[in-house]
Specification:
about 250 residues, transmembrane helix, TM_pro_TauE-like, TSUP, globular, mainly alpha, membrane, about 0% strand
Length: about 250
């Protein structure tokens, strides 16, 4: 796979890998831009397999950084529904060809952009967080869990879904980052056998991953430095704009 990449294409993937590291330790969900870059440079179906080990590397660094801030009751509440979503996503990938996956990723990116905009407006209006232990809270956790599992399996795009859920549950920044770090590490590692079985992760993709993981580390260090300094509203606007452009590029490609 690496032998077919031009210098500019590898540079784009390296920048996307750096952004993965940054998003894991600073702005969760920003790696939807990385998803768009990977799907634009590589075949859409193959891009999900190449991106997965890069995401896992970022998850490991995020866990090492924020491991003391995870909220495990929330994680245990989400995992069964997420598992169901991953199974549904695997069945979809068994049926879908590269074109269907590309269109699906484009649609997911656009939908997630809309979700992110809605999430930001909700946060700005100060809507009260819902009790996650209530019946409505448990139903919401299951709904978000299934959607998050499906989107993360099909397109590695579960970040915005989980970000919206954690913010609506009233998580502060460090609790948010710690909980999402463990969540995505466990979910992404559990996706590996499915991805190998589907032929999305193989020797060629892992060779490319070995080169790209080197760029995740400086991105994570940059995110750790910037997390208390970044103007998040401006950054989220840039992420949304880049994600919309990426989604439209995939749909019009």
């Amino acid at each position: 796979m690496m032998t077919h990449l031009t210098g500019w294409e590898f540079a784009a993937l390296a920048c996307a890998a750096l952004l993965v590291g940054f998003s894991k330790t600073a702005v969760s969900g920003a790696n939807t831009v990385s998803l768009a870059i990977f799907a634009a440079v590589l075949p859409a179906r193959a891009s999900t397999g190449v991106l997965l080990p890069v995401l896992i590397a970022g998850d490991v660094l995020a866990v090492l950084t924020y491991r003391r801030h995870a909220h495990w009751p929330t994680l245990w509440r989400l995992f069964p529904a997420v598992g169901a979503g991953v199974v549904v996503g695997t069945l979809f990938l068994l049926w879908a060809d590269d074109g269907a996956v590309r269109i699906s990723i484009g649609v997911i990116l656009l939908v997630m952009s809309g979700v992110t905009v809605w999430r930001r407006r909700t946060a700005e209006t100060g809507e009260p967080a819902e009790d996650t232990g209530s019946r409505a809270g448990r139903l919401k956790a299951r709904s978000y869990g299934v959607l998050g599992g499906f989107t993360t399996m099909v397109a590695n795009a579960g970040g915005p879904v989980m970000s919206m859920y954690l913010l609506s549950a009233g998580f502060r920044k460090l609790g948010f980052l710690g909980t999402s770090a463990f969540f995505f590490l466990i979910v992404n590692v559990s996706k590996l056998p499915f991805s190998v079985g589907l032929g999305l992760v193989d020797g060629d993709s892992l060779l490319l991953d070995a080169a790209l993981v080197l760029f995740v580390v400086p991105g994570a260090l940059l995110g750790k430095w910037a997390v208390h300094r970044i103007d998040q509203k401006l950054f989220e606007r840039l992420v949304i704009a880049a994600t919309v452009l990426g989604g439209l590029q995939l749909l019009l490609r």
